[in-house]
Amino acid sequence: MTSTTAQASEDTMQAVVCHGPEDYRLEQVSRPRAAAGEVILKIGACGICASDVKCRGGAEMFWGGDSQPAWVQAPVVAGHEFFGEVVEMGPGAEAHFDVRVGDRAIAEQIVPCGKCRYCDSGHYWMCEVHNILGFQREVAEGGMAEYMRIPAKARLHRIPQALSLAQCAFIEPLACGIHAVNRGDIQLDDTVVIAGAGPIGLAMVQVARLKTPKQLIVIDMLDERLELARRYGADVVLNPARDDVAKEVRGLTGGYGCDVYIEATGSPTGVRQGLEIIRKLGRFVEFSVFGKETSVDWSIIGDRKELDVRGAHLSPHTFPVAIDLMARGLVTTDGIVTHELPLSEFEEGFRMATAAESIKVLLIP
Ligand SMILES: [Zn+2]
Ligand SMILES: [Zn+2]
């Protein structure tokens, strides 16, 4: 037990380290230890997010360009869709984290600074400093590793034992979906359109169904995903490759258009389509991150429809809600979490995450 080899393996661990665009490496790095107020998680799984794929691909929003400065601090262990078991608590950590050694827990992706005007007014998810786990080494390394250090300022939540591994790993995407749906302020007699049935879009479908709108319509280019959307409670599914979406939505709403449109496609087409099929005075929720700029007739928003355009960023106050919805069996990951791979196969995982046959891919340390 005290041999040097055993010692070495206890002090180091495997991790997927982001060094730059197209440069992610599986490395042996030193295992983190908990300082005062901190917690160490033994990672159970870490999902690959579309943002991880975009970051690896070198997207400007991560690495900077003409319009914005670089945001990622490399080298950094990637991954923000993690959960794990608490294996170590630093001095004083019990004072601000409601967990004990042996509990399963998850930290929100943002680590609020606690000092800026947003943090100060309770809008911690818009924190001006905006440190996100898995991208900014300054606060901590990410979750694509065997162990992870949770900084004292993180927002950590305990996970009940009843949740499966897939459910635990899906808490973060679900929490983001819940916030976007909440922004739509869905009423009982609303016709709601969700555009984009990726992992978070499919979470939104299940959450929007729980709000019991009059009609729930889901739009996507992939029929397999529309099938899932139907299973999760969509009343109508439309594929723009085949259906005249605008005509169908008008037909379903007495010619008016939908009351709420939640944009989760990440494509400029999804924005233009929404502005076309939403009714006057409707609520347009923008959730996506875009790889390119979108051009629209901006006068639709004011002069023609007086729209309520609402952004949705991260998952403020919705982690406990996500955990509760899954614990109560109201949201499922069946059909959404499609692949589980060991950390060593992360390259394959990233490739799979963009393939049509997968929805959510997990890395298991
Ligand atoms: Zn994500
Ligand atoms: Zn702040």
Automatic annotation (TrEMBL):
| Alphabetical list of PROSITE patterns matching this protein | ADH_ZINC
Keyword Cytoplasm in record: no
Q: Which GO terms describe its molecular function?
A: oxidoreductase activity, acting on the CH-OH group of donors, NAD or NADP as acceptor; zinc ion binding
The organism's superkingdom is given as: Bacteria
One family name in Pfam for this protein = ADH_N
The cofactors it requires, by name, are: Zn(2+)
Q: Which UniProt keywords apply?
A: Metal-binding, Oxidoreductase, Zinc
* InterPro entries cross-referenced by the UniProt entry: ADH-like_C, ADH-like_N, ADH_Zn_CS, ER, GroES-like_sf, NAD(P)-bd_dom_sf, Zn_alcohol_dh
Ranges for the Enoyl reductase (ER) domain?
20-363
- Record family assignment: Belongs to the zinc-containing alcohol dehydrogenase family.
The name this protein goes by in its record: L-iditol 2-dehydrogenase
Origin species: Kushneria sinocarnis
